[in-house]
């Protein structure tokens, strides 16, 4: 089997993938930047966006794992030249996941206030959180639909059309945010935080519409549901269940981090909101190369090209370190302007400047962890990903967070605990990958 793993080909997949991957964090970052600069209760609004974004990220990451499962199965069949056998799988997967998303809306909408009280939100922050969530949650099915379609494109070794869709969505969100949050003269009234929520929902709807168009026009994969279920649906469901448990562990980490930050006060959760959204942005940026690893590893594994798979991993390790260092340097160069972009509150800015350096130091470590996350997803080894996340969350992060909190480190404690969490995610995956594929490559 011949597959190109040159830097040029990796970039051809990775650069469009990273652009499409940052679409969701751009929605949240745009909301944060816009509401963080409104004239009335900006700090409380920013805190509310941070809390709701954390909860929505949990829901999206739990159910959005369809992208990885679809991509893994489709790419392996592409590698084996048997795509026709799984052409009906994406539509079935999309049907399952969007049905679940509707149940999530029904199950969370009436209890929004109780949900955000669990994050220590109270007073005006709680009110804003509920207002923002009760609008933005209606974009949830459209987001999951788009994510699943992106998985089909990735499986087909195509990241170009997801990039186009993401650019359209991000641009629409920015324009709508400015119009709906600040208002336009006497034509459109300023809607503040509610305007940001409406902007996100409309942008997600636009992305879903373009996803439908490009999948039907540019690929052989249909969106019409056909039965009986594809023979790979059981494999798909097992992957999803393993990723579901993994993502619950991941979001347990984010829940505790957000809860502790909220407990320290409004300025702390506002600062945490800025920092964690920048962390998400960097994570999704790196995800472009993780996606290339996902796409190529699935195809190589399906074609049993283990020697090329090992060479791919070695290249991606090098690229991951370089990307992480570049991201850290960019953050260092624009250290002070970044803070002022999101808030004018002196207390928030002081806290941000005192802690953002830890996020920057994490970047090379994050790059390695996320690259191998992507490769293991492409290989379909979701059980390994599940076990690593359970270990890093419950054995490393949570005990360390409580310990550092008891010492009074506050935001520093949260970000240091996250750093060790990332280390505990990345190192075991690298070791396990090499243990499996070095012997296989030698027998290839």
Automatic annotation (TrEMBL):
Keywords: Antiport, Cell membrane, Ion transport, Membrane, Transmembrane, Transmembrane helix, Transport. Belongs to the multi antimicrobial extrusion (MATE) (TC 2.A.66.1) family. NCBIfam families: matE (TIGR00797). InterPro entries: DinF-like (IPR044644), MATE_fam (IPR002528), MATE_MdtK (IPR050222), MdtK-like (IPR048279). PANTHER family: FMN_FAD EXPORTER YEEO-RELATED, MULTIDRUG RESISTANCE PROTEIN NORM-RELATED. It is a multi-pass membrane protein. It holds the Pfam family MatE. It comes from Flavivirga algicola. This is Multidrug-efflux transporter. It is found in: Cell membrane. It comes from the Bacteria. The chain crosses the membrane at residues 45-63, 93-112, 132-153, 160-184, 196-216, 236-257, 269-296, 316-338, 350-372, 384-404, 410-431. Its main location: membrane.
């Amino acid at each position: 089997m011949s597959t190109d793993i040159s830097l040029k080909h990796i970039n051809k997949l990775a650069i469009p993938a990273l652009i499409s991957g940052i679409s969701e964090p751009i929605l949240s970052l745009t909301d944060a930047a816009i509401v963080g600069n409104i004239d009335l209760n900006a700090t409380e609004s920013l805190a509310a966006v941070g809390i709701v974004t954390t909860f929505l990220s949990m829901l999206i990451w739990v159910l959005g794992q369809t992208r990885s499962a679809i991509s893994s199965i489709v790419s392996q069949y592409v590698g084996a030249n048997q795509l026709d056998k799984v052409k009906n799988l994406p539509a079935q997967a999309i049907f399952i996941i969007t049905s679940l998303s509707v149940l999530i809306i029904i199950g969370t909408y009436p209890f929004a206030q109780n949900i955000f009280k669990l994050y220590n939100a109270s007073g005006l922050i709680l009110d804003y959180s509920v207002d923002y969530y009760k609008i933005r949650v209606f974009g949830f099915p459209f987001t999951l639909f788009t994510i699943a379609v992106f998985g089909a494109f990735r499986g087909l070794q195509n990241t170009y059309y997801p990039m186009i869709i993401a650019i359209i969505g991000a641009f629409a969100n920015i324009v709508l945010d400015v119009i709906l949050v600040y208002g336009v003269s006497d034509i459109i009234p300023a809607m503040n935080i509610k305007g940001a929520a409406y902007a996100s929902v409309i942008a997600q709807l636009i992305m879903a519409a373009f996803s439908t168009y490009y999948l039907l026009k540019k690929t052989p994969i249909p969106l019409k549901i056909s039965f009986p279920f594809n023979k790979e649906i059981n494999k798909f469901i097992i992957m999803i269940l393993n990723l579901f448990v993994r993502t619950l562990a991941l979001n347990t980490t984010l829940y505790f981090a957000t809860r502790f930050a909220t407990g320290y006060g409004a300025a702390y959760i506002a600062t945490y909101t800025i920092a964690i959204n920048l962390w998400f942005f960097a994570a999704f940026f790196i995800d472009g190369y993780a996606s290339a690893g996902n796409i190529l590893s699935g195809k190589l594994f399906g074609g049993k090209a283990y020697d090329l798979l090992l060479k791919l991993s070695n290249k991606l390790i090098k690229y991951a370190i370089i990307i992480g260092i570049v991201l850290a340097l960019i953050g260092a160069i624009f250290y002070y302007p970044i803070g002022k972009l999101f808030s004018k509150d002196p207390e928030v800015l002081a806290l941000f400047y005192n802690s953002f350096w830890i996020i920057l130091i994490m970047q090379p470590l994050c790059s390695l962890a996320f690259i191998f996350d992507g490769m293991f997803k492409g290989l379909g080894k979701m059980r390994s990903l599940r076990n690593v996340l359970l270990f890093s969350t419950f054995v490393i992060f949570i005990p360390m967070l409580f310990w550092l909190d008891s010492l009074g480190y506050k935001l520093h404690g949260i970000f240091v605990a996250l750093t060790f969490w990332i280390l505990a995610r990345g190192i075991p995956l690298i070791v396990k990958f090499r243990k499996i594929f070095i012997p296989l490559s030698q027998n290839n």
